[in-house]
Amino acid sequence: MQKTLHSVKTFLQSVRFKKFVKRLGFFILGCITLIVIASGALSFYFNQNKTEIIAKINTKINENINGKFHIGDFQYKFLTGFPNFTLALKDVELKDNQWTTHKHTLLKANEIEVRLNIWSLIQNEINIHKILINDAQIYVYKAENGYSNANIFKPKKKKTPETTSESGTTIDQVDLNDVHFVLDNRIGHKLFDIDIASLKSKVKYDDENWQTDVFLRTNIKSLAFNTVHGSFAKQKLLQGTFAVSYSAEKEKIDVKTENLKIGKDAFDIVAFFNLAKGSALFGINIGTTILWQNASNLLSANISSKLNRFNLKEEIDVNCDIKGDFNAEGDPRIVVQAEVHDNELSTPDGSITDCGFKGIFTNNFRPTAGFNDANSAVILTRLSGKYKNIPLTIPQLSINNLDKPLATGIVNSDFDIENLNEENTEKWINFTEGHASANLKFQFDIVDLYITKPRFIGNVNIQNASFHFIPKNVRAEKINVQLEFTQEALLIKKIAYKHQKNTIFIDGRIDNFLNLYYDAPEKMVVNWNIYCPSIDIRQFLGVLASSQKKKITAKKPSMSNQLRTAIEKCIVDISIKADKITYNKLTATNTKAQIQMIDSRLVIKNGSLQTSGGSINFSSTVSPNGKNYNFTSTAQVNQVDIASFLKSFNNFGVTSFSPGNIRGKLSSNVNITGLINSNGELITNSSHGNLTFNVTQGALLNFEPIMKIGKFAFPFRDVENITFSDLSGNFKLRGEQIDVNQLTISSSVLNLDAQGVYSFGRGTNLALTVPLRNSKDDAQLATKAERDAVRQRGIVLHLLAVDDNGKMKIKWGKKDK
């Protein structure tokens, strides 16, 4: 190593090397001297020929324009651009012939630096090698009538064989610094407004064709293809290198760039611009990998205002294709395609996790309907993800007409229904187990980007569902449901509902479901067919209870509260059949009825059942009243065992006798109202209405009021065991009191007629008519007429049964007294 260093040092100190350095120095000095002399000569040449050069430039420019070209001053730049001749044009203005009409100056520059080829200049030709435009404004204007101030340049004459060899003026290089460029196209409502910080271009010519690489650094103020809708990439910094080529045969410019920076994101762009006369077609294809929000913010306001309501958490692969005509009004054709994998999609209605799809946006969904929002569509294919832990698969989703968006598609899902609890923010229903699968065609409106009025056609299967319906405290276990949505109705099939010890089999139908569910749920009629092997009515009274009212702050409607509203407002029409029904102590068989549930009211029509050895036909209405229930009922009772029947209804609140005091077959017509409690028991003294009855094969056993009268009037007759040939009455119930319009007793002990008021508390005032004759053998008479003829014979007592400090007192007297 030391030997090598010693050799180098010896060489540098040698005479030979010193001579070389000396000669090299003289050579460099000579070159510098030559450049200075040449530049001085050029400066001398310019000063001597300035007038002629200016005249040639003006002539050259004016030969090619229809307008006015103004230069404030010329300067020669010494040594700049050597060996070219560099000329600086100060305060340059270029105006077209109609400037006074539109007032838009095509070019206004503080300085334009022009470098001329020296050898061409010596030969009296102007050949511009390079143009540098500094601190300038370029405004290209196109009026509504098609006129453009850029038409200032005269068309070139076509070359002839005689002029083919003549050399023309070419510009090899163009640089722009601090140039404000505006393209204002009033025909198509297009406005391109950019601040060019730097543009550098070197042009290579091939006859009339040329190509160049353009480096551009600019800030985009407006890139509006339709000024009504706003600008693309507004206020974004753009920087990159463009490969630009021009084909004279096609009269078209092609542009290609890779890794073009727009803001912080990189883009690959391929574009073309048609320059043929009468045509201004263009096409731009953009590809990138970008975040959703960044991509949305590059689009025009009419699109980004909608897209910004959505978001994708991870980057997506996007390709945007824009094609149009600069001379055409309205938007160009825009097609955006995106690939999404393992992403999270945020929407105004919630988030979809594990999301993947292929998406296409087009503003020309129907090819003949133009490029506008009404003809725009978003098409998603192979969409999959989880919405609030509910897995969704949508083969295709189309959102058409972005003015009034309508979404259509098919959705498939398979999930545990406990996941539905997350959608139920109001906690009105709680699912504890079960599984659901769905295959549905859907259609829904999108209002302010929220899903509105979703409509479905298809089927939903639910297995082993258990839930708690909180507003009415109803619990259900292990329910299976099949739902089929059609255009005409919602069909509800194969429901097996278990409630405590009751099992109910249900199927149903809701006609015109899709229209009424959202617009008029109060008109929606749910038709149920219910079969019950065995049921306890009292356990279902809670279903009628009014839901607890909560103050809910105004917010957007959700699928959950929409469903709750429909459930609470709809009319439920039930056709019920039960093998066995129990109600308190009443047991009935072969029960049939038509039941409607309207606004928390239970309306029973055409009811029939068999009980206590007879039958009952009935209609009734039950509605909540605080913690109790109002009821209105009409009934026709046919030949039921009176003791068993009274026992079933707690003797209707009568305490003066018990069902054990009476026997026989009861027939009755009842029209009453009253109250029952939450346990289904009649509230004492709440009944009002009319009651008529007739008892056959009757007997009265140990009935205290009659026994009191018997001991007083008939001490030798059997008043403890009385049989009846006739026992009938007509009563009006008034709560605690009963108006006895007519009570007829024809018995083995005596005959008795009663009229007046009987009270369960105080206020009893009954007029009793009691013939004293022994009526024991009256039942042997063949006809009622014969029995009536002997009924009032002999001595007749007129007694009053009146209230005496809460006890019944018998005294002499008639009703009118």
From TrEMBL:
Membrane in keyword set: yes
TM regions (residue ranges): 24-46
Any GO BP annotation: regulation of protein targeting to membrane
Protein name: AsmA family protein
Residue span(s) of domain AsmA: 18-167, 546-708
Alphabetized InterPro entries for the sequence: AsmA (IPR007844), AsmA-related (IPR052894)
Annotated GO CC locations: plasma membrane
